[in-house]
């Protein structure tokens, strides 16, 4: 009899994981609460453009679907900061040739579903809302949201990839004794805005960069779409002096943009219309443990939803697929052994990518505009190019390697300690590119 | 029309709060998932005997039911530690006349239900499982677990007092956007044991103390019941070298007790029988916020469930009633204003009682057997009796005053800092009761 798997949720991670499982010989049934997004209108407004980086590509390459995705992605080799005068300042993300890739969530998801069905032979059942999972039996229960019909399905193994508010987790895992769980909302929300293309279809900003308007306690970002437009996102506190709730009228909104993002305001004639056509959304970090029970495993956001500030949510979910797949092979598909090692090995990385994501919010909204931070990054960059075996910058570790997140975080913290000492020199601005500073870092690095 | 309230959960806090609301002129309907515990057999095994202290008594006095409860409680004026040789060592909890009171959860709950019905005029509906709450409308939905019938009820205001795993919180609050929530299980579980009375009905241990067998990483405690027996509880890790899961056979259990709690083993002939008749249970801390939404408020464990090591879970819940009642009067029953101040004012105290409870586990299972800790407590006790206006020991603040938990915690931390400096003197064991040490503490206290 053919091996069988159920996947709950046909999002990015679910549809990619279906391809992995098919490759391993499993008959895969995917149950998805929503209608087929390829037939429905693709819903904008709650997407946050995605940035595919190394970990994502690595997983896609394993199942041979990376080329198709590259065709719908746009390379971003660095950040462009926009200051209050509209002046732009470019910071490369890594070395020549290194980039992260802007890709639309809707487009990517549709593509992944195509691949899961056509290449993976998966069957996707739409309008199926998960109402319960019998974890030890490997049986899931769904309600058809169109007909009200209740159906059950059983398989050798079940994967819940149904996102930060996973119904499988809520209805089954969260009722287990000794299940640790937390959902913590940050104080900030976000609202998407669409910056349209020029009349001739050309881009209004450099498409090969991630644009940031860093303003200390809040920020605006923009990532290019394939059609010449940019998906922009304003991140800001819900409440307080400068906040979403303080922008009560249309003129409040216009004045805020005119004053705070003047160059953006000048090129975004449809500001009010795009503002009102997108919802205000919240941002949460979800932690839980264990990630597996009986025949069921949580993957992606269902296990470790994070805030989007390192562009690693999808990449972490795709890396879950790589990790699970390696363990399937290692343990010869002995699922209890696979699940045990998956959750033990991967949990510290889930925690770490969340910590990194929170840290990077401060970097993006504030530090990138701070001359001391920029000088520190220059010193790190110089040292790293002179001694690449001794220093890989944190951003590079996270975005351009497959180093475990937990290791990257620990190394990054250690580097920060070293750089605090280096930056303490009163004459650091004069001597930053000296042999003396290089030797001082060498000494500090070798100390541990 | 008479003012109306719904209470979800007829536990200790729910039935006490019904008396408060009745006093304020509300018609109260209580919906309880379980059958009437006064008619069913009182279920032991998951109770952990309760220790009523000042905050509990204060709430009971407000509605004039303290005398009835005193009649079913047993004063415990201190701890008796049992060492490995069976030697006993007494530590008073406070000053002469200060005590906490052992009371059985089942007995207390039955009594509170009687009072709510007879004195409060409340109606208790049993077998009603809460399946949903419309928070803004003040409408709650229940399923009768005997008949399957679904019923709805509406009132001016609703209180969820349905415990750590509150169905009202789970089905309604936990689905709200931006609701912060965490449930964290500690590594330890507990199992209750019943130490019976002597044949003549007398107690096998001093009934006016809380007995502790502190063993570092785990502990056994015993609290007296009215009938001559003691309810004992073993707290221990689930897993590891010394753990519940390491005790696999009856002889493992007997050997463990013989070696670890020899004096207890000698007086507990029914060890195996009582061991097997009680379940192994887990312990969690549940935090959430906000505690109110629309017409509904969470109180007691539903808002801030804690571990039992300070004996404050029930006391904190009863104090919620005092706080809510004071705010009802302050805001003239303007419920939106009451709810806003209730959650803002009380949340730091909910967090603090949880932190205090975790801290006190270390005190009970470990420090109470540490000569340095005992010396520190002697020095604090001496200083406090010489300068009662300058030093109230933490245990006294928590158990014998109505000082806010958050203030007690902060004061306790400050006292710990001071005592660390005092205990650092190499000759402290010789000079602990000297004027010099007293003056040193006076100076440290005045520094901030």
Care to describe what's here?
The structure is a homodimer of 448-residue chains. Chain A has 448 residues and is an alpha/beta fold. Chain A folds into three domains: 3-74 and 105-183 and 283-359, FAD/NAD(P)-binding domain (3-Layer(bba) Sandwich), CATH 3.50.50.60; 185-282; 370-447, no CATH class. Helix content of chain A is 40%, strand content 24%. In chain A, the strands form four sheets. The first copy, chain A, has a seven-stranded mixed beta sheet. Chain A has a six-stranded mixed beta sheet with strand order 8-2-1-12-19-18. In chain A, strands 3-7-4 form a three-stranded antiparallel beta sheet. In chain A, helix 1 (12-23) runs parallel beside helix 4 and helix 14 packs across helix 16. The interface between A and B is medium-sized, with 12 and 12 residues.
In DSSP terms (H or I, runs of 4 or more residues), the helix count of chain A works out at: 16
Number of strands of chain A: 19
CATH superfamily of the largest domain in chain A: FAD/NAD(P)-binding domain
Under the CATH scheme, the architecture of the largest domain in chain A is 3-Layer(bba) Sandwich
Strand coverage percent of chain A: 15-25%
Q: Flag low-confidence runs of chain A.
A: none
What does the largest sheet of chain A look like?
A: 7 strands, mixed
**Averaged pLDDT of chain A:** 94
CATH topology descriptor of the largest domain in chain A: FAD/NAD(P)-binding domain
Termini gap of chain A:
55 Å
